[in-house]
Amino acid sequence: MMPRSASPEHAPYVLVAEDEQALADMVRTFLEDEGYRVKVANDGDAALRMIAQEPPDLVLADVMMPRLDGFGLTRELRHRGCFTPVVLMSAVFAGNGPAGVRMVSKPFDLDDLLSELESVLHEASWS
Questions:
Q1: Fewest CB atoms less than 10 Å from the CB: which of 4, 16, 48, 116?
Q2: Is a pLDDT exceeding 90 seen at residue 78?
Q3: Which residue from 81, 120, 127, 123 is spatially nearest to 103, judged by alpha carbons?
Q4: What integer is the mean pLDDT of 87-116?
Q5: pTM of the complete model
Q6: CATH code assigned at 30
Q7: Rounded distance, CA 43 to CA 17, Å?
Q8: What residues pair up with 58 in beta bridges, in sequence order?
Q9: How far apart are CA 26 and CA 110, in angstroms?
Q10: Which residues pair with 60 in a beta bridge?
Q11: Which residues on adjacent β-strands are paired with residue 61?
């Protein structure tokens, strides 16, 4: 998958749910430079509201956030019948996440993160 070649209106839309503003800004800038459309929510509750307004192609969420953490966000999405791919980021939890959810350990290399997101989007048949 080569998002750089996609026109902006056809670029994959990634919602980043991250309460650490510096990290959220870094990931947003990097993904936008790679051709993705990116929006940022500072917690899981804000992410749910944004998803209801415009469903993303992928959610990249921190596990530990105020109000609603990444696990709770994922559970609530599935409860609502939303099966958007989710990648969870964590400095504490490692290994496998909930069924069908990928985990990325913090700190991460941005190129490795991009590869993971592209793999998840490809598996979800985004093209």
A1: 4
A2: yes
A3: 120
A4: 86
A5: 0.89
A6: 3.40.50.2300
A7: 6
A8: 14
A9: 9
A10: 16, 87
A11: 17, 88
